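ok so for the tutorial part 2 we go from a plain amino acid sequence to predicted structure tokens. step 1 is just haveing the sequence, like this:
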Amino acid sequence: MEFFHNVNINWMGKTKYFVSLSLILLAVGWFSVLRHRGLDYGIDFRGGTLIDVRFASKPPIDKIRKGLADFGLTNSTIKSISSSLDPNSLNDIEIGLEQKGEEDLGVDREAVINVLNNTLGAGNAAAANPSAAAFTIRSVDTVGPTVGAQLRRQAILATLYALAGMLLYIAFRFEWVYGAAAVIAVFHDVLITLGFFSLFHYEISLTVIAALLTLVGYSMNDTIVIFDRVRENSRLMRREQFPEIVNRSINQTLSRTILTSGLTLLTVLVLYLMGGAVLRAFSFAMVVGVVVGTYSSFGIAAPIVVFWNKHHGGQGAAARAGSAPGKPAPAVARR
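step 2 — the prediction. this is what the tokens look like for a chain of 335 residues:
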């Protein structure tokens, strides 16, 4: 399916605009990160307790917050986690507690239950008839500070290992400069997405790391599609300048890009708008990542290869992109 025929957009002639946009997004996002003295980590990484509470009627947030403060839990947070997809969740809230040491595990949880009982009356998670209780404890998630630090380190390593593996694959399949350009573009996507998380005050959790790793693969796949077409066109258009080959390749894959990215964006956008607070950070990462990842394929990765080819490779670099000397070029599937 093709939405566009005979497209002739000079993408490489607009490189300075793409780079300027990326620099602005990076500067704004990471200024926010520095202003807030780092990213806002969830309990998965910093340690703490999350208590999911369902109330029989609309919960008095201010009264609960005052009760927690009077009890000495001044570091607590309260937020609604209702979802339009689940009518039963309209009165759900999540109480978050930051823990300072392993000895605090489980202590604050009991304190919260006592505060809720004193503030609202009887209610417990094991009630025989939960509908008659003022509130019900639906779940309690606790992560110690030591475990949180380990998870944070493992999440960083997982992302770096994924980037390294993709760099090696693309360097083997194409040339090392193609792999480097793709990894730089993906790194650019992750940094911009994290900057947006700071701007909009979303927490970084394990589900967000899963979203980022998904976006790494999504953005990389989109970049490989363009590079694959560049490799094919470099054999068919040997007398053309390399920037023109790249422009032609991006234009030829434009319909595919709009179709796949557009449908993916619609899906994650619905998830963001209707999925509720529990999925809000995950779907937000997907929305930002799909947009930035699609843009970086032709706005960042492709211009890096053109720049390198202009200053170091010459036309021969394009011709060698497909396979090693003396070996037949691998088959290229039409997209």
